[in-house]
Amino acid sequence: MSLFKARDWWSTTLGEKEEFDQGCLCVADVDNSGQDKIIVGSYMGYLRIFHPHPVKPGDDMQAEDLLLEVQLQEPILQVEVGKFVSGTEGLHLAVLHCRKLCVYAVSGTQGNVEHGNQYQIKLMYEHNLQRTACNMTYGPFGGVKGRDLICIQSMDGMLMLFEQESYAFGRFLPGFLLPGPLTYSSRTDSFITVSSCRQVESYKYQVLVFATDAEARQETVQQKRSSGKRLAVDWVLNIGEQALDICIVHFNQAVSSVFVLGERNLFCLKDNGQLRFMKKLDYSPSCFLPYCSVKEGTINTLVGNHSNVLNIYQDVTLKWAAQLPHVPVSVKVANIQNLKGVIVTLSENGHLQCSYLGTDPSFFQAPRIESKEVNYEEFNAEMKELQKIIREAMKTQDILPQSEKRRDLIVIAEVSPDLDAESKAIDSEVKAEVVPSVTVKVTVQSRVTAQKPNLSVCIQDPLAVTCDQFIFNDLEPDSSETVVLSVFLKGNFPPSELEGNCVVSCSTPTGIPKVAQCKFKLPLRLICFPAQPSKSANHKITIDTNKPPISFLTIFPDFADPSEDDQANVLGFQFLTGSKITLLASKTSQRYRIQSDQLEDLWLITKELTLRLEEHFKKQNCKDFACTFSGSIPLQEYFELIDRHFELRLNAEKFRELLSERAVQFRAIERRLLTRFKDKTPAPLQHLDTLLEGTFREVIALADAAEENQANMFQAFTKLKSATHLVIMLISLWQKLNADQIAIMEAAFLPLAEDTQELFHCPGCGNVDSIYQLINLLKLTAEWIISCHHHRVGKKLWILPFLPY
Predict the structure, then answer these.
(1) What strand order describes the sheet that includes 25-28?
(2) From start to end of 174-274, where are the E strands?
(3) Residues contacting 199, CB < 8 A, separation 6+
(4) What is the rounded distance in angstroms from the CA atom of residue 157 to the CA atom of residue 153?
(5) Bridge partners of residue 170, in order along the sequence
(6) pTM over 0.85
(7) Cα separation of 558 and 524, whole Å?
(8) Is residue 725 within 8 Å of 496, Cβ to Cβ?
(9) Average pLDDT over residues 88-115
């Protein structure tokens, strides 16, 4: 702890429950008025500009200190000020969002009354990013004069360079894994970053210009060699730890240096990557800033840490330490109100402070202890009374507060114990004789007035419901609504989960939104039925227990036939899609074996077995029951499912590219035909109609193949998800993981409910509608052009009002 505090000159707290980080603070003359302003952006999308005035200690900031506050549509990752607009050398504000870069002009209007000036921002231009951004840097790349260029680093390692209003090029960093801090050195015209290999890397701007374009990354190796040079690093220095930030300093009294703040060390490098000096830190740093050189050959640096202390170093010598009221995530030095060297700090929860280094010591004086005799009997009586109060409080304490005992909005889902006597399955692709369905009764209860409640029933494919959306009339207080729906298997492959989710949303008359949800479990009989056990199978897993085996007649009464004694230890299941699973219980040991020809088919039966065993022993008041797994994890079969799914993803990308090429060819032929038709002098078509028809057939064939690949890819996705569930379950039984550890594994390895390009898996999902539209559109266009060829009247051509170009 420091002896001295940083003297508070001005401070404020930004918003409520907002989050800030390293790039959210900037100090510059953003309105070109000659005075520094403080620009702050938050992850909630708020952009604020301050011009502080001194206040007395303990007083709140003045209203006129906040020049501008505007909420943008997206989170703000970083704010910078520079010469970003062509045709002027005035300073402009660059705001980096996750998928967008915006450049604004900040201007003020002189106020006519005592309320002060009015400030506004004007969007000069914006760039929509194709990749998710991480951070950015700017400078006169290539030695340009009078303007600044911007370089954005994406989350997948691409450097996107923008020459003000236009996009220049993009380059991928070699060997990239995770993004690190990025800065630009105008002295060497190079970009400096810290890679995941924990080494500082420098890339020349000219090397980036002539390197292989990032858009050509998908080309073959031979094409890459002929289209550009490989991106080569200028110099590399291994620092052995991850970096928090990088700064380039150019001071008159000191040589140009590269400062790198690591997790435990502060490094100072020369322009060529050689180490000048390093300082080992005995604390965890949070931010830093090399700010001046007061002695020739030395550089002063501010370093904030997680102990709320701001340290000032001259090279490696500690010169001062000041206590801060918060942990700074960003620190700047500003000249405000003719006061030079104001230290501006920002915390992650929005505490913005302008301070300076003072000499008022902060002493803690321990209160004086009164010396008197200790009455132990009185202390024991008081201790027993307090313990009694604590015990009574623990008996009556609820998990939820009293106000949450009765929720205003409740949704309850009840699954019928029996299958529907008459199946409600609609448009099922299952090739079984009868596709069963089960009834789910959903009740929505409200204690308050609920306006237009909306009920959504979510079931993962290939399961489906007869109706998944319900909109009710307004509910009066203490009233309820009930709906009945049926769930059935629609796709011709087993699902990965037998669960559903009900979500109801509404709003009160005062505009307060209310949301409630509940989950329900579907019966195993919905997707499979009893079958003859199979003696041989390709895949087998064995579950060990610490209790004697239970008869299947007891734990599977809905599948086992009591009249057949052999089903006590052997039971067969068959999915509606045709695959069979056999369940065996050992007569001599405490083991159960599940076997099937497909690895993914083992998941649902294994899960059902463990759940029913736990439920059975719970009814017997047996608390020490446990399942374990001591066999080998079927990783080879699991990897085959991953390879199959990845292969289908690659096929989907190939089909997309081929469809794009044939569509371009189709439109080119259309334009040639239309030119011929408009010609006053009729000319032969030179087999253009034949070429159009052939291209049309190719587009139809590619669209059909892409649609088939899409269906196969979703089926492979479901199989992979079931196999992932199974592998996680086996690992949890093997290592005896608790519920929290299992949840961490599921969050890390399990894909989300939908297989989409933006998430983890297949690109191109959801393009089936687009394929159908493309087929119909090309078909109509081809028929129209051919009909025009046969129905030309004189020299006139009847042109339809719509032609897709």
Answers:
(1) 25-28, 37-41, 46-50, 66-71
(2) 182-185, 190-194, 199-204, 235-238, 243-249, 257-262, 265-269
(3) 236, 237, 238, 239
(4) 6
(5) 160
(6) no
(7) 9
(8) yes
(9) 85
